[in-house]
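assembly run, all chains below
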Amino acid sequence: MNKKNFTHLDKSKSPQSVDVSNKKASLRTASAQGIIKFNNKSFQKILNLKSKKGDIIGVAVIAGIMAAKKTSDLIPLCHNIPIDDVKIKILTQKSSNSFKLICSVKTFAKTGVEMEALTGVTIACLTIYDMCKSLDKKASVEEIKLLKKSGGKSGEFTT
Amino acid sequence: MNKKNFTHLDKSKSPQSVDVSNKKASLRTASAQGIIKFNNKSFQKILNLKSKKGDIIGVAVIAGIMAAKKTSDLIPLCHNIPIDDVKIKILTQKSSNSFKLICSVKTFAKTGVEMEALTGVTIACLTIYDMCKSLDKKASVEEIKLLKKSGGKSGEFTT
Amino acid sequence: MNKKNFTHLDKSKSPQSVDVSNKKASLRTASAQGIIKFNNKSFQKILNLKSKKGDIIGVAVIAGIMAAKKTSDLIPLCHNIPIDDVKIKILTQKSSNSFKLICSVKTFAKTGVEMEALTGVTIACLTIYDMCKSLDKKASVEEIKLLKKSGGKSGEFTT
Amino acid sequence: MNKKNFTHLDKSKSPQSVDVSNKKASLRTASAQGIIKFNNKSFQKILNLKSKKGDIIGVAVIAGIMAAKKTSDLIPLCHNIPIDDVKIKILTQKSSNSFKLICSVKTFAKTGVEMEALTGVTIACLTIYDMCKSLDKKASVEEIKLLKKSGGKSGEFTT
Amino acid sequence: MNKKNFTHLDKSKSPQSVDVSNKKASLRTASAQGIIKFNNKSFQKILNLKSKKGDIIGVAVIAGIMAAKKTSDLIPLCHNIPIDDVKIKILTQKSSNSFKLICSVKTFAKTGVEMEALTGVTIACLTIYDMCKSLDKKASVEEIKLLKKSGGKSGEFTT
Amino acid sequence: MNKKNFTHLDKSKSPQSVDVSNKKASLRTASAQGIIKFNNKSFQKILNLKSKKGDIIGVAVIAGIMAAKKTSDLIPLCHNIPIDDVKIKILTQKSSNSFKLICSVKTFAKTGVEMEALTGVTIACLTIYDMCKSLDKKASVEEIKLLKKSGGKSGEFTT
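ok done. output:
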């Protein structure tokens, strides 16, 4: 069988969840990134604030972790699985007036956690937007993508 | 007062929700976009499928509408408000192997719906990723941003 | 315009939520019924229990009220609106070994509460099933339907 | 001990969850059905639509899958367990102006998935009602019942 | 009518939600407190940490705000209403090795926000417990109570 | 390593979830208590009611069980895990006009269920408050604390 099928569509092309009952549970990890960009003036204000208190970042991390746990409630065909770990890191990229966020998720389950990592990083980015939108409505979220995954039949993936 | 403050931080820079009890309810709208990009081969496969059944798109639209209604559960400092309308449009951009999604939200409330539009469009993009990730794990979500908003004290905003 | 259209489909027959931003808020009510039928032996056991403690019924009422409040989270195109009242009544129908449940909902909003009444009554019926399934797996839920609605442009409806 | 007890009631007849900590996890499956009936005129309109686009059906399938994953949030005494698969099939029954929906669920857990199958099929039926209620408010949902289950101590069950 | 009835029980003493459809919406506020007490050694460690980063407090504030918005999902007979503001303050009480938390909520609605204030303050206290339980499992939450409420027919209340 | 660290803070004192991917799943239990106190007059009214119908208690038990299942949605850094059992007992303490509630939770997982027991008991107490607040707004919730836990690396804990 060609692995590169639409596994979320059945033969009649209707949406379906993937039956994982025959899969073996194993350690699976995934990391995803997202970047939120500001104009220079806003970014400087946020950096000034961050050096003192870090609250914007703190709220975003919590929002991202909570969202990752809620992924199966948001992405219709995602399985609900126990999550062993969610970490969110936020890197300051001064040259581009942006923060790069990386969300890493682990589970021991029959299916991977790519969508959990992507959902976590995205909601964290949107939370930063929400915290700063009174300052800069034009901020954008960019380059949301899977960085790597491990575990399961499809094995390692790295960008 | 300078409008460009961090309204989500109090004087001691701790996170706070914005007190809207003195605001007047009014019609408020917001639109946001997001773009999901594939490699050419995957994009062609999706287009072939779409021309027949549209199921991937259909699932993404439903996921985005449901997520927009759940915004206050995801973005910590968002108010829970009744939503009058959520529309999600999906434009095929053949020249860039991508779909542009636009989510438009309306409410009659004391606070705006920017975060609802951004949350709706983002979860719709991630749902397309989920439906197609067996085909192309490297697809990315790009240029998530507010397109316009109307209503409320801060008035019109257009990119 | 013909009122009997699919208001949840747009011109291209894609699903959409109904834009209620131009509607006027008004008092709206709806009632829906559902019937859960048992075999005679199980029904007698439940009746014996009910005459003493009523706990099965009590759990079902709470489950139905909570589900009615969650309707917009379950039915994809339902609006999230504040609910003013949810009542669930349970009538014993000895001749047919069944309980008839009636859920009545009120709101002051731009859209009706038919789906809230139907969701409330259905989850209450399924909760009774859950509480009694160790006794009678063959119990069935029957005749779930809207009994009446009032308010809004489409006016009164009674079966 | 007589197996046909109210396992969801303790000795004093108060509601309780069932302690499954001593049970062994195993593959468990369940299927449930529900039927939604229209008047002939409405049913023909829906069929005409379905032959073209299938969107009503598509929305109902997604709603049912998402609801099945949320069962423990709706049915008070249901355990929250990882779900391995949810499938929803929709059969057109022309002779009775109705659709028969069948929801099949799989898990590898200490407790069965009857309630997940019943919740999934029911919310899918109610979603079809919601999508078509502007056309036919008198549509009813009928014969919601468990079709079969397998796995666990109580073993096979078939209607 | 005697105001001091069980408004959440009907004449047959069955639980019911309160019908607020005849009430007038008005500004309503409520504040509630909760206290979390540690042993002296743990409290000093937390204070040292707090003086530097405040992260424990920050997470608790976010958890409390999010929980207040979810109150109608947790307290079965609470109405779902739009919340205009949630503030959580945390006071350090050195003499008793404790933090006093105060949650203040505002709405413009037909029913009060006592339960929202109580739910917010309680989940914030439990979040502090969770963040510190590796240090001091014996910490306790004390004196959760309503401090004041205003608005609505029953008028002002102050402890 | 000193076990008594803040395991929910990383080296830079930012909040983090605990990575449990290397832990072994095992049977874990936890019990927590909470006490709700009334004035004497209200307490007598509630007792009179309780002797007849028990509905207040019944609603509180259901609310507590449902809340315990939702713990990971409320406490930001709690893992989402399958819960094997939740029991809530309510003891009448006539000498102090109070009810003592005890919530006991079991799981087979990589992490403990202290927060589930605490969340369950607390929401059950707040539900009793909600059911009785028309009678006695000054009722308070007291002495919420962990009673015991078993399982996992940190072993037995008893107050």
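Chains F and B do not touch (no CB pair under 8 Å).

The radius of gyration of chain F is 18 Å.

not gonna interpret more than that til we talk
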